[in-house]
């Protein structure tokens, strides 16, 4: 039988020193007094130190005292005693040439006998942290520019709406006044959409507050007596992307305005327009209904609003269905979840 003899302690110690010196990672080997026993060439090169003078120095004296950091010393002592561990500890090292962001890791080594050693690895992440700060600054700058753009868009929409309203008051033709009023309502609705999206954080849009605010805005601008006619949204907790929410908002705007214009030609005691939205996985259904006079005549020519709703629904890959609600009319826009190729 062949026996293997373990390496003597001095041989193991020498091997450890050799590994530290040749490491491609900046390393320090410290004794229990925090005196440097070995330093890798990469450590010395990274911090402008001479390899032949580092050994035998206490870590706090390296680099003219730039490593004399009370918190670091406390962590190293606690690690030597086994009461703490340095695992990915980030340290800001102040240097005359510029501060460095360092990641420190320390491993406690126990040699035979009573010798205790501490292996300290150092990773310079200054460039990474600088890139992160520059990215954050760029994001903040873009957010400021976006807010300024949104403010200008909101002002422009208000100016356009005011011009349309003034023009509607001046014209003599009832038909022209109707078209101008319709344009004014559409611009105001778009302004509501823009304001809601501007206040929404980056990411998905919550549809309940979005549709509720939209319905309130349309009602405030087009319903003279809220006691006789109301718009009621019933929306689940769904969220969607900003692009989809804009299309949905425009569809709701057109359908609600259409109901306000045509579903209640005479004064009503309790008129109601409902807006509903519910999703199930990738599928969803948007409905706008009323309890008015019912569906238009079959020979009625589709208006601009109908064309807008159909175009937006097609863009969302949804189908439009108009049904008699008895009383009133119900418009349903349905987007069905697409089946995977493996489904029957």
Automatic annotation (TrEMBL):
It holds the Pfam family HATPase_c. It is an enzyme of class 2 (transferase). This is histidine kinase. Residues 243-339 form the Histidine kinase/HSP90-like ATPase domain. It comes from Sphingobium terrigena. It comes from the Bacteria. It catalyses: ATP + protein L-histidine = ADP + protein N-phospho-L-histidine. Keywords: ATP-binding, Kinase, Nucleotide-binding, Phosphoprotein, Transferase. One of its GO terms (molecular function) is protein histidine kinase activity. Its EC number is 2.7.13.3.
């Amino acid at each position: 039988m062949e026996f293997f003899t373990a390496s003597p302690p001095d041989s193991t110690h020498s091997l450890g020193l050799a590994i530290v010196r040749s490491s491609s990672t900046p390393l320090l080997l410290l004794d229990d007094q925090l005196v440097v026993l070995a330093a890798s060439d990469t450590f010395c090169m990274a911090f402008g130190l001479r390899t032949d003078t580092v050994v035998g120095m206490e870590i706090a004296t390296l680099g003219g005292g730039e490593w004399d950091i009370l918190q670091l010393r406390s962590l190293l002592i606690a690690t030597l005693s086994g009461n703490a561990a340095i695992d990915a500890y980030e340290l800001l090292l102040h240097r005359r040439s510029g501060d460095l962001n360092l990641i420190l890791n320390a491993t406690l080594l126990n040699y035979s006998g009573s010798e205790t050693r501490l292996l300290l690895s150092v990773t310079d992440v200054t460039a990474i942290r600088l890139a992160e700060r520059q990215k954050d600054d760029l994001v903040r700058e873009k957010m400021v520019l976006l807010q300024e753009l949104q403010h200008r868009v909101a002002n422009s929409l208000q100016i356009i709406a005011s011009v349309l309203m003034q023009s509607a008051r001046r014209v003599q033709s009832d038909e022209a006044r109707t078209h101008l009023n319709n344009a004014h309502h559409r611009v105001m609705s778009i302004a509501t959409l823009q304001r809601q999206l501007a206040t929404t954080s980056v990411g998905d849009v919550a549809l309940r507050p979005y549709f509720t605010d939209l319905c309130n805005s349309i009602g405030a601008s087009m319903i003279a007596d809220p006691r006789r006619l109301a718009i009621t949204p019933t929306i689940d907790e769904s969220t969607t992307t900003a692009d989809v929410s804009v299309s949905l908002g425009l569809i709701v705007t057109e359908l609600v305005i259409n109901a306000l214009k045509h579903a209640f030609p005479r004064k009503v005691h309790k008129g109601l327009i409902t807006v509903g939205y519910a999703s199930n996985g990738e599928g969803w259904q948007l409905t706008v209904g009323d309890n008015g006079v019912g569906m238009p005549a079959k020979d009625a020519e589709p208006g601009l609003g109908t064309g807008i709703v159909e175009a937006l629904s097609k863009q969302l890959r949804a189908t439009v269905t108009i049904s008699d609600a008895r009383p009133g009319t119900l418009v349903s826009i349905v987007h069905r979840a697409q089946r995977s190729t493996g489904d029957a």
